[in-house]
Every structure is written in C-alpha cells, then in structure tokens.
Write a structure and sequence with these properties.
single chain; alpha/beta; Rossmann fold; 2 domains; five-stranded parallel β-sheet
Length: 419
C-alpha cells in the first residue's frame, strides 16, 4: 500500500510534526508499505530517506516563522497526487491543503486529517482576540475541514475538545517515543542538590509561552534554589527570551538537529518544564519521561495527562506554580520520580502509534492481536472492553475499506492495493 502524507509543518528546524511523520514513515516501511511525504521547500526535488521518500514542492516562506513555508500552488499539489497515485492519504494541515480531500474523494482514496494543534487556542493567542471569538472562528473552520476528509485523528482528549464541541467524531491515536534512543542510560550527571538542571525543549514561539521557564528560574534563584536552565530550540521569541534571561544562568542551544544530543540533554536534566498551555500531546515531554526525567506541565494541556499518570509533580498555571512544582521534586525522592516517568513512557512506543494508524487504513495486525496497539495479551486473555481483535486476517493484508477508513460519499476506494 502506498501512503502519502502532506504537511506544511515541516522546516529545517521544525520539531514535533517532523518527528511524527518520520516515525510513521519508518513504521510503515518496516511493515512493507510505501511512504511518501510531500512538503513545501525553497527548491523542488525528491529525497530518498530511511523512513521513505520526501517530495519537495516549491512554496513561499512564511514571515516570522524561521523557515516554515506553505504549499499554496494547488495545481502542483494535485498534479503530484495524480503522479503518486496513493492508496491512502494523510494530511497534517488546516491551512492550505483542504483541496486534497476533494481530490481524494474524486479518486476513491480514503483520507485522514491529523489535528496536531488546538486551533481555537492558536487564534486566541496569536490573533489576540477574545476566547469566544476565537472559538467561533475555529468552529467554523474546523467544520469545513473535517467535512473534507474521511477521518479526523487527534492525539489526546485535549486535542479532541474543539471537535467534540461541534459534534465531529475523532479517532484518538496517541503519539509515541523512540524508547531505544530516549533512555535513562544516557544520563551522565549524578543527582546534585547544589546543581539543579532544568531544561526547556520547545519551539520558542508565543503560544508555547517559553518566558514562563525563564521566570520560573528567576523565582527559584530568588528563593536560594541553585538552579540553572538550558533552553533547547529556536523560534521568533528567541531574541526577546535572551534579553529576559540576562543576569540568570540560562544557556541557549538553539535548534539541535542531532536527536541523540537532545536525548543526552533530556536525560541529564533534573526536571523538564513544559509551559505551553496548548500542547495537544507533548512529544518533548514524553521523550524526557522516556529518559526518566520528571516533567512539570501547564495545567489543562495534554502534557498534564501524561504527568498525572506518573503521580506528579503538580501542573502549574504560572511561574510561581512551576517553581513550586520544581521544589516538590527537589524535596522528594528523585529516584522514584525518574523510574515512574520511564514506566509511563514505556507504554507509548512508536509501534503502537503506527499500528493504530494502519488499522485506520484497513491494515489488520496478526490474528489474535489487539488491533489498537499491536500487542498480544501476555496471558492470552481478552482485550479491554471496546478493543476489537483481528480474527484471522494475515498480518499486513489490506482488508476492504469497510474495515477501516472509507470514503464518506460511499464511492469505491483503492482498498486492497498492495506494494
């Protein structure tokens, strides 16, 4: 089966969506499928990567975004789809790619739209409009976009809320983490009460609220806590954040392309701060937890749900709350917090994410395997209530679209195609 994924959220220094699509592509290829990623770029071209094929189409740069571009040439996008002839289409976008849904309907190709962000929160944060206005704008936009695709995938209940509000059904597919790369064994620092290392790993943009991390450090230092902060990432707020941090022990690494180096930093941290209130999952937070590092989350974000499974530290609303949560880590048993964080992350490997996406695409896991996570019950018992079992379809076989996605207009699909 040939799966084509299109996104605008892809740039030389981009983070979360880039990590997601590379992991999906690698998982699809491991299971015998073909994967093509279509992204905007300065120059058109094709790149063969370990995770699949990247097709670059020319797109204009978005001012103030440090390298992001947009796929705005509708004809070029649709022409590329004609040439690629996909069996399934995935779209990580709610800005310029709605026409992809129309192309797919006309060609009988099932589609998935992945909603990686809270649109209502972005409108309120970036456009500086009141919450009710932002919600009304997002609701209208989301209705149109959801209608263009056969399924809407979200990563958490928090991400689903803006679709629940307008009665649009969603499929929940949690993201994953590379458990071999992000591991506690990478830690090189001993626990030292006289050297508390905090890390912020985030795009430095307004909706992520990175200034909260700097102000948290300021409060801790004022209270005599020997803390320092490493900021991993780049973005439009980088310069103002550096000015805010003057006089404080803050190190700015900029964007770090080496994933192993990021894993080293997260493992060496004593706590990772996740102040973004709009996080719909929190990949960096999950990667920190996989390294055994506790995370302090913004109250109400999807990261809070991850940290709640560990049992703390408490979520926070502002720098004072973040500082208080960090102090609970300093005063508590560090070893227990680190092992608990790793235990939660071990439940969220990328294999489960890939298998859930393939189940949506109509690809069954092995007979007797829970189709939601691809893991056979250790005791041979039944899965939890509501979790279906594939009974007898050979692994990797693509079943008719009625078992997974199907075009909403009822037209025949390409289900059954294989590579």
């Amino acid at each position: 089966m040939h799966i084509v994924h299109l996104t605008n959220a892809y740039a030389p220094a981009s983070g979360g969506v880039r990590t997601v699509v590379h992991a999906l592509g690698a998982g699809y290829r491991e299971r015998g499928h073909r994967f093509t990623l279509v992204v905007p770029a300065e120059r058109a071209g094709v790149d063969d990567e370990p995770w699949g094929t990247r097709l670059r189409l020319r797109g204009p740069r978005v001012p103030g975004t440090d390298g992001y571009r947009l796929l705005v040439d509708r004809r070029a996008v649709l022409r590329a789809l004609d040439e690629l002839a996909p069996d399934r289409v995935e779209v990580s976008d709610r800005f310029t790619l709605r026409a992809v849904g129309g192309w797919a309907r006309a060609h009988g190709v099932p589609t998935v739209m992945l909603a990686h962000e809270r649109l209502d929160g972005l409108v309120e944060s970036l456009a500086k409009v009141p919450g009710p206005v932002a919600r009304a704008v997002a609701d209208r936009h989301n209705r149109h976009w959801a209608a263009a695709f056969d399924a809407v995938v979200v990563t958490s209940p928090f991400a689903a809320q803006e679709f629940d509000r307008i009665a649009v059904a969603t499929e929940r597919v949690p993201l994953g983490v590379d458990l071999e790369l992000f591991t506690p064994s990478r830690r090189t620092r001993a626990l030292d009460p006289d050297d508390l290392l905090l890390v912020l790993c985030s795009r430095l943009s307004p909706e992520k609220e990175p200034a909260v991390a700097v102000e948290t450090l300021r409060l801790l230092r004022a209270e005599g806590v020997p803390a320092r902060l490493v900021v991993v990432g780049d973005g439009p707020e980088a310069a103002s954040l550096a000015r805010r941090a003057r006089g404080l022990p803050v190190t700015f690494t900029g964007f770090v392309p080496d994933r192993a180096a990021v894993a080293d930093l997260l493992a060496d941290a004593d706590a990772v701060l996740a102040p973004g209130p709009l996080e719909t999952f929190g990949l960096a937070a999950l990667e920190a937890m996989a390294c055994g590092t506790p995370v302090v989350a913004a109250r109400g974000s999807a990261v809070e749900a991850l940290t709640a499974r560990v049992g703390g530290p408490p979520p926070a609303d502002d720098p004072a709350g973040f500082a208080a949560s960090v102090r609970t880590l300093v005063d508590g048993p560090a070893g227990g917090a680190r092992s608990a964080a790793r235990a939660v992350a071990e439940e969220l490997g990328w294999a489960a994410t890939v298998d859930r996406m393939l189940a949506l695409h109509g690809v069954c896991p092995p007979a007797g395997v829970w189709s939601t996570d691809g893991v056979r019950p250790a005791d041979g018992g039944p899965p939890p209530d509501g979790v279906p079992i594939n009974r007898g379809v050979p692994i990797g076989e693509v079943v008719p679209a009625t078992h997974g996605l199907q075009a909403r207009d009822g037209r025949p699909t390409r289900a059954g195609a294989r590579t």
